[in-house]
Design goal:
Blueprint (H helix, E strand, L loop, with lengths): L1 H16 L19 H20 L1 H18 L1 H8 L4 H20 L6 E2 L6 E2 H23 L10 H9 L1 H7 L9 E6 L5 E4 L2 E9 H8 L11 E3 L1 H9 L26
Parallel strand pairs: 3-5
Antiparallel strand pairs: 1-2, 3-4, 5-6
Helix pairs in contact: 1-5, 1-6, 2-3, 2-4, 2-5, 2-6, 3-4, 7-9
């Protein structure tokens, strides 16, 4: 299952960015909801563990996930996750890395169509791995931005593009809007230079890089801060509310809010 290898590769890319972080630098605040670098890595580590628990022990996952979601409703993500992960800084990085390196080969050997429980509807193990890659890539963006680093993108980002395509209708529904009859026509250029095309509505078009599109659907950038060329009312509306992840409706960052900072090291 290629998606498992892509998840590990995305995690390794993020791990390499953390080489410049030490000491109190782990408490540096990112541009994402005032989360610190520690908060971001706790989030990724915790939910990697939850999806692996769903695979290994569905009964315990069902119990634990109920408790977790109730706590999130009461206290929010950051408080809930930080209460359940004890490591911080280098120890957190080590625990996170050990977990994803352990998960990758085991998940790669599974039937991609096998089903696994989740906090929402159950999903295929392929979808579970794609979701973990997307989370790692999306939350990794605030780490790269905070550290002033440019991520070297690879064509595995196509998995995240496909999530964006597949959640076209969801993006409208979760925001309480009518779903357009057709998805805009996409013409996206992958990091390798290959062109990827999706959609039928030639009156509404989105053209540009796959990275820019993925940033918009994962809400790591406002569409105005990308190079996407957006034409037509449906395309414009979609890019203003696109959301390739589950949960309640989320507001994309304001124009100029998320960007690569000049900081090089945090210590």
């Amino acid at each position: 299952m290629q998606q498992a290898a892509d998840f590990v590769a995305e995690s390794e890319m993020l791990d390499s960015a953390l080489d410049t972080t030490s000491g109190q630098g782990w408490d540096t605040v990112t541009q994402f909801k005032d989360w610190t670098l520690n908060d971001v890595m706790v989030h990724l580590h915790f939910w990697n563990g939850m999806v692996d628990l769903a695979l290994r022990d569905p009964d315990n996952f069902a119990r634990d996930s109920r408790d977790v979601m109730a706590a999130i409703q009461a206290d929010g993500f950051r408080t809930t996750e930080n209460a359940r992960v004890s490591e911080r800084g280098p120890a957190l990085r080590e625990a996170w890395r050990a977990r994803y390196l352990d998960m990758g080969p085991r998940w790669a050997a599974l039937d991609p169509k096998a089903r696994v429980q989740w906090v929402g509807p159950e999903m295929s193990v392929r979808s579970a791995m794609t979701a973990r890659q997307m989370e790692t890539w999306a939350h990794g963006q605030e780490v790269f931005d905070c550290l002033g680093q440019q991520r070297q993108e690879q064509d595995r980002i196509r998995n995240i593009v496909m999530l964006g395509v597949n959640t076209f209708a969801w993006s409208f529904r979760v925001h309480g809007r009518d779903v357009p009859a057709q998805m805009p026509q996409l013409r996206l250029t992958g990091p390798s230079g290959d062109e990827w095309r999706y959609g039928e509505d030639a009156k509404n078009t989105i053209t540009g890089t796959a990275v820019d599109f993925a940033q918009v659907v994962a809400q790591t950038r406002n569409v105005a801060d990308t190079g996407l060329a957006v034409s037509g009312p449906v395309a414009a509306e979609w890019m203003s509310i696109a959301q390739c992840f589950a949960g309640g409706p989320e507001t994309p960052p304001a124009a100029g809010q998320r960007h690569r900072q000049t900081r090089k090291n945090v210590t």
